[in-house]
Amino acid sequence: MASVTYAKEGTFLSTTQNIAKITLNRPDALNAFNPELISDLNAALDQAEQDNEIRAVIISGEGKAFSAGADLKAMTELSREEVQNFTKAGQELFRRIESFPKAVIAAINGYCLGGGTELSLACDIRIAASEIKIGLPEVSLGLIPAWGGSQRLPYLIGMSKAREMILTGTLLTSEEALEIGLVSKVVPLDELASTASFLAAKIADNAPIAVAEAKRSLNATRHMTIEEGNALELEIADKLAQTEDLREGITAMREKRKAVFKGK
Ligand code: DAK
Fold first, then answer.
1. Overall domain count for the chain
2. Are residues 9 and 49 in the same domain?
3. Where are the strands (E) in the chain, listed by range?
4. What is the 3-class SS of 49-72, one letter each residue?
5. Lining residues, ligand 1, CB within 6 Å
6. Based on the domain organization, do 91 and 221 belong to the same domain?
7. What's the mean per-residue pLDDT of the chain?
8. Residue 86 burial (10 A CB sphere; 0-12, 13-18, 19+)
9. In the prediction, which pLDDT does 131 show?
10. pTM given for the model
11. Residue 125 pLDDT
12. Residue 180: predicted pLDDT
């Protein structure tokens, strides 16, 4: 996993190391995505998924970028078939992050361009350092945001702003990104990691099956009618009603103590 680093961390809320910190680690190429980075990020996600202690994941970038997008050098060296495979691999990776059974937070530092932005769009929460540049400049290169960006962005910020961003390829400042809801929080760079850890800790303190099912229900809104969505909520509520964690949550509330969830 040379192009990605993986660390397990504890937080102020837990003695257990229940947060996975995944860092894109190709700073010399501004963490641009090549096939190796995609494969390494998948391997890091495997580790986070299989580790029952991990309750939330933070993704960030080493150096002055979150990610400058697809590796343009690598792309020029690939055959047509390899480009297709690379595109599919990125799409699958970002779908995996979107439906990952644990919450994923993008802590965006510096440049967040093209595929970097598309990665962040697949995460549950995006927070940004105050000096970022974020956008989808693909059309300025003769491409489109083909790793799910043209599909997820309108859903997150509305079609009007999404069209403006994608068709002009304009990069936004952190304040502009906050204003349109592309990111939910902006903090000074030296507070980015601690803010991400704080959010991750809050999530990690909640009932893990409920968090995973809340993600599933939120993700379903894109393709379901309200009736179908309500049916899914009913199914999930029934499933959660059978969990030990729900009993623990209610008991702890009555006993005025902190709940200890086991993910069962
Ligand atoms: N790919 C590869 N290397 C990159 C890179 C990138 N995207 N971005 C930067 N680098 C490298 C630079 O080449 C440089 O390496 P050396 O020349 O030192 O070896 C190093 O990172 C530092 O970059 P700079 O020297 O340029 O740093 P500056 O601070 O001066 O400028 C910059 C930062 C972010 C403004 C600039 O690096 C830049 O404009 N980079 C390109 C950003 C960009 O256009 N990214 C692509 C976005 S589009 C698809 C698959 C994927 C996608 C679409 C379709 N299919 C296959 C159909 C996704 C597309 C995108 O992501």
1. 2
2. yes
3. 4-11, 14-24, 56-61, 65-67, 103-108, 111-113, 125-129, 133-135, 172-173, 185-187
4. HHCCCCCEEEEEECCCEEECCECH
5. 29-30, 32, 68-73, 83, 86-87, 90, 111, 113-115, 137-138, 141, 143, 146-147
6. no
7. 96
8. buried
9. 93
10. 0.96
11. 98
12. 98
In the chain, % helix, strand, coil (3-state, to 5) comes to 55, 20, 25
SS3 string, 10-36, reads EECCEEEEEEEEEEECCHHHCCCECHH
- Is residue 262 domain-resident? no
Residue having the nearest C-alpha atom to atom 46 of ligand 1:
69
> Do 175 and 50 share a structural domain?
yes
Q: Is 108 helix (H, G, I), strand (E, B) or coil?
A: strand
What pLDDT shows up at residue 13? 76
Q: Please indicate, yes or no, whether residues 80 and 122 belong to a single structural domain of this protein.
A: yes
Can you give the residue range of the structural domain that contains 37? 4-204
What Rg, from alpha-carbon coordinates, does the chain have? 19
Q: Whose CA is nearest to atom 11 of ligand 1?
A: 29
Q: Ligand 1 centre from 140 Cα, in Å?
A: 13
Domain co-membership, 240 together with 123? no
Annotated catalytic residues are 118, 138
Does 22 share its domain with 142?
Answer: yes
Task: Give the model's pLDDT for residue 114.
Answer: 98
- pLDDT of res. 11: 79
CATH code for position 77:
3.90.226.10
* Binned average pLDDT, 10 residues per bin, the chain of 264 residues: 92 85 98 96 98 97 97 89 94 98 97 98 98 97 97 98 98 98 98 97 96 97 95 97 96 93 94
